[in-house]
Specification:
mainly alpha; globular
Length: about 220
């Protein structure tokens, strides 16, 4: 009986330098969002891409530099997401976008393990890593600028209160988001949902014109 020869293993497509770097960044984003910077392993990043760990370091130099590059990419994605959601799900309405951002439970979902929000929350605590700290500051400024632009557009449309400084309003929103971990730790469990809802309502009242926050 003729024995069939085993078929050759499929050959892996060789990535060019730009695609390899992009693949490493995407894998690192997933790893760090899931496990955090301290526990995240570059070996796991390499395994997800299908390269050796030295290839990761050849492209980024160090784990901290890789994480900083991830933060830069995440900030770009989140800034673009703000703009996309304004157009696609909010019909260009800044007030509707605020309602979406501040909806009950939304901050909780944004901080779930494996999300970009969880990754940014982790980065905020890495003050002992200068390169990461600078990337975090750079990234939050990028997101704040996009939020400020949205608030300014809403102001021109008569949705955002005329006495609100858009840049200050943007940083207020980011500060509310960044302090979510603190509230989750400090506020009693039985009061957390109510506290989050009231903070969201307070923020809407501060930023939008009265007609947008009155209930029928």
């Amino acid at each position: 009986m003729h024995q069939q020869e085993p078929s050759a293993a499929p050959r892996r497509t060789r990535l060019n330098a730009a695609d390899r770097r992009a693949s490493i960044l995407d894998a690192a984003t997933a790893v760090f969002a899931d496990t955090g910077y301290r526990r995240g392993r570059t070996a796991e990043v390499a395994a997800r891409v299908g390269v050796s760990e030295p290839v990761v370091f050849q492209n980024f130099g160090s784990k901290a530099a890789l994480y900083a590059a991830v933060l830069d990419q995440v900030a770009e994605r989140l800034g673009a997401t703000v703009r996309e959601e304004l157009v696609t799900c909010c019909q260009g309405s800044a007030a509707t976008l605020l309602e979406h951002l501040l909806a009950p439970g939304h901050f909780d979902r944004m901080h779930e393990r494996g999300t970009l929000g969880a990754l940014l929350a982790d980065a905020a605590a890495l003050t002992d890593e200068p390169r990461i700290a600078e990337a975090y500051r750079r990234g939050t400024r990028r997101i704040a600028e996009e939020l400020a632009a949205v608030l300014a557009e809403g102001q021109r449309a008569g949705e955002i209160a005329p006495d609100v400084d858009p840049a200050t309003g943007a940083w207020w929103l980011l500060s509310l988001l960044a302090s979510h971990r603190f509230r989750r730790t400090a506020v009693p469990e039985e009061d957390r949902a109510r506290t989050e809802d009231r903070l969201g309502e307070l923020t809407r009242r501060l930023l939008t014109v009265p007609e947008r926050t009155e209930h029928p």
